[in-house]
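Need the bound structure for fe (ii) ion, inputs here:
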Amino acid sequence: MSSNGEPTSFESQDSIPIIDYSLLTSSNANDRSKAVQDIGRACEDWGCFMLVNHGVPETLIQEMMDFSNQFFNTTAEEKLEFEAHGVLDPIRCSNRINLAHQNKSMLWREYLRLIVHPDFNCPHKPPGFREVAFDYVKRTRAIAMELVKGVSESLGFEASYMNEELNLDAGFQLLAVNHYPSLSDVDISRGLVEHTDHGLLTLLYENGVPGLDVLVNGRWICMGGVPNAFFIINADHLEIFSNGKYKSTFHRAVVRDERKRMIFVNTNGPSLDTIVGPSSRLIDGEKRLPRYRPMKFIEYLECQIKHVTAGKHPFEEVRIHI
Ligand SMILES: O=C(O)CCC(=O)C(=O)O
Ligand SMILES: [Fe+2]
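Answer from helper R.:
Posting the output first, comments after.
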């Protein structure tokens, strides 16, 4: 499934597709239709793309970085209140070492993970964090919803089809802030083992310190360095809903830089009680068979934890071999 080597290139991120968000939201039908086509190609051929001209102010992003930093700098006792227990904890914080299954190396990261939709959750400390995070989530959710409309059209559906089928108005969304302190602060490697995300599309924004690798057509590509752009990757439920047309993208974090790295991760899923399988419009009789078993989204989240802990992928549970 994935080649387990070092990235084959540190340059080829230049060829990752770039989508101009202002064209997707343009009132000019030609511009929009070109953006939709480009999104479709990016999702099918690459499983990821960069998003520019997204309209989220740099000042807001900087404020988010500053507040997140302040949060991570509070004492271990203060953070204990948000110690991780389960997947549905509204606010989770962890300072965690995970074992990379294949090579058994230890990787370290710290994270704050918030459920931000349908209900918004965020710590009240440091003062002002909650308001800024709310603004950031509102804007990134709007972007994600526009992107899903574009994806829906690129699959040949109406723009609103995926939203309606997957009940995205009550969609389950997470905002995670991953923090990889500087090398001099920790004495083991920093990173996150290779995985795919639940949901439809994941939006990532990093603080300019590279460390994200994505697996594209069997080759690891080392991302980073594109200022003021979101990086978008296909997630599991896009693959399931599109019946395998838009594959979920494996990615990992391998921080090679001395500097502190921070990255915001927004996942965008259906509502927890939605049963997600391949769209009925993509299945017909014997020619186009379903490749995934339908599963309630909340059960998928639990299944993902179980499988990842065992070093497996949740698709082992839902994929139909035909
Ligand atoms: O920290 C990173 O670069 C990747 C984060 C990620 O993939 C995740 O949190 O799911
Ligand atoms: Fe991820």
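Comments: DSSP finds nine helices and 14 strands in the chain. The pocket of fe (ii) ion (ligand 2) is lined by residues 195, 197, 251 (CB under 6 Å).
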